[in-house]
TrEMBL record:
Residues 164-236 form the Xylanolytic transcriptional activator regulatory domain. It comes from Linnemannia elongata AG-77. SMART domains: Fungal_trans (SM00906). It holds the Pfam family Fungal_trans. GO terms for molecular function: DNA binding; zinc ion binding. Transmembrane segments: none annotated. It comes from the Eukaryota. This is Xylanolytic transcriptional activator regulatory domain-containing protein. Keywords: DNA-binding, Metal-binding, Nucleus, Transcription, Transcription regulation, Zinc. GO terms for biological process: DNA-templated transcription.
Amino acid sequence: MLAETTLNNVAYFGANAAMVTNTFNEEDLWGAQLGDSNTAGDVLVPEELQILPDPITREQLTDLYYKNHYSSLPMVQREVLRVCQENVHIPHCLLLCNAVYYCGSMYSPNAITLRRDVNDEGSVGEDFFMRGQGMLEKKYLTTHICTVQALLLFAIGHKSQAQRSAFISQAITMALDMGLHNKLDDSVNPYVRAYRARTFWCCYLFDSTASAINGKPGLINDEEIGIDMFTAGELGPESETFSDQYIIHCLHGWQLCRRIRKNSNLITRPSPPPRSVESAQGVRVCSL
């Protein structure tokens, strides 16, 4: 089982950095990092809310998520999801599980059984969304990488554009507050550094896309980014390397676009002369 993280085995890196565990079990590198980091009190999910699909449905939805979503957005590794499934008593673990199932349900061939309303095709997966939304209430909401990932996944499938934008903004704001954009000391376990970097760059992708679609400035300031791009193949099997290469290619493209947009904003046209000056010039031309 996943060990609970306490103040005895966490440390801070940077002014706004999130807590990073120093204690690792070689057989379970994810355990301590995914543990409950809510130091204000151990708020756990009561058993009646620890609802997951049956094992067969869970496996099907997980496979659908990795087949249809992970290929273009390699964010939640299988090992991370496995640990979360084993620890649904922790709010952010249950939240991420429901977000993954929510995305997977969009491609399920048995969509009718996954509808909240049997007569409404648009209600597929809404049970997972509603359960996840329950974990976003103040009592259970914890600032954690899993929470950031879940918010981004919920943004993918939600029908409301306003709600999608809200989820993305919340995820990016939380990621910045956690300091995911800051470079950690080399003494931090490489798995943790890679996990944080991967999640941040996924936030960067969402921020860039939302900014381009909505025509508004992004929430992430490129000049404040201190971490390097994650490496293809980190934390996952070799079969996922292509997905990593794809998103890294997209991220480099967005970096270039953001740089071009920033530079173009620096080139300002001189403001037009006042109307009184234009009128005076017109009078002189006419008199000639």
